[in-house]
Design brief:
There is one protein chain. A hairpin with a 2-residue loop joins strand 5 and strand 6 (about 205-210). It contains two helices and 14 strands. The strands form four sheets. It has a four-stranded antiparallel β-sheet, with no helix packed on it. The protein has helices at about 1-100, 105-130, and strands at about 155-160, 165-170, 175-180, 185-190, 195-200, 205-210, 215-225, 225-235, 240-245, 250, 255-260, 265-270, 280-285, 285-289. The model is unreliable at about 1-5 and about 280-289 (pLDDT under 50). The chain has two domains: about 1-130, no CATH class; about 155-289, YVTN repeat-like/Quinoprotein amine dehydrogenase (Methylamine Dehydrogenase, Chain H, 7 Propeller). Helices cover about 45% and strands about 30% of the residues.
Length: about 290
């Protein structure tokens, strides 16, 4: 009897333990579900409030920017409208002169009006526009000659890099030199470059031309103050000026302007003036013909 009772007691205890554990698990699941639902609702409400605040802030910022832009544009729009008005008035006077050119008296009166209108336009232009593109605040001279240079430095091009260093094309010594921000030569490569243009933050393209047989574009990469020559492609014409625009290369031969892809494929000839040997040039990143 004692053994049977002890076994029954043990079974009852185990059953009770299982029931308690099951109840605890059920309570925990219910609590978790209720808590999860509550948290989820709270997060959704908070998200909606954040979206609303962001939308309100964005609309307010856009409105303020538009108002600020309108204020800044007002003087410019006034100048543009005045220039348009002067242009229209000059056109009208010009048309009037053409109509009365055979009538001496009217032609004289119209001529005076034309001179007066031209003077007004010139006064307005002088008051509102300046011929000065920029103001020079200072200048300095730096020697880029290296001990290995055997000839006089002949600088044909220079480029300021994004990190503040400089690339200098020394055609006289057949080198492209890298200068640090203190204008000291820290690296160079043996390339007789005529002109330079930037391709990527770490790559440039230069034109190489010996005026006889060599006509090519050489790519140079720079990393950790070191210049490394890379790929190149040959041209069937002279190459002096070079510029990059919208992923294409524009190369000047001296009297013609060509458009090339970065891979070296000729896209087209944009312009040619064969009246002289040198009728085109490169200037400040823009090629002029």
């Amino acid at each position: 009897m004692q053994g049977s009772y002890a076994e029954l007691e043990r079974n009852m205890v185990e059953t009770m333990q299982l029931n308690i554990q099951s109840f605890l698990v059920q309570c925990e699941d219910n609590s978790v579900n209720e808590t999860h639902a509550h948290v989820e609702n709270s997060v959704d409400e908070m998200r909606q409030k954040i979206y609303s605040l962001l939308a309100e802030f964005e609309n307010s910022a856009i409105k303020e920017n538009k108002e600020e832009l309108t204020l800044k544009q007002a003087p410019l729009l006034s100048v543009i409208n005045t220039c348009i008005r002067h242009h229209i008035e000059l056109l009208r006077v010009y048309e009037a002169l053409r109509k009365v050119k055979d009538r001496t008296e009217l032609s004289l009166i119209t001529g005076y009006k034309c001179q007066d209108k031209i003077q007004q336009s010139e006064i307005y232009m002088n008051e509102n526009f300046s011929d000065e593109v920029f103001t020079i605040q200072g200048k300095s001279t730096h020697n880029v000659r290296m001990s290995s240079d055997s000839k006089t430095c002949w600088i044909t091009a220079m480029l300021v890099l994004p990190d503040g260093q400089f690339l200098v094309a020394d055609w006289g010594n057949h080198k492209v030199k890298l200068l640090n921000q203190q204008y000291q030569v820290v690296s160079h490569c043996g390339v007789s470059a005529q002109s330079i243009c930037q391709i990527t933050p770490s790559e440039v393209a230069v034109t190489v031309d010996d005026w006889i047989n060599t006509h090519e574009v050489q790519f140079i990469t720079f990393n950790q103050s070191q210049l490394v020559t890379g790929r190149h492609f040959k041209l069937q014409h002279s190459c002096y000026g070079i510029a990059r625009h919208h992923g294409d290369l524009f190369i000047c031969s001296g009297n013609a302007l060509f458009k090339y892809s970065l891979s070296g494929e000729l896209v087209c000839k944009l312009y040619e003036d064969a009246s002289g040997l040198v009728t085109g040039n490169t200037h400040g990143g823009f090629i002029l013909i």
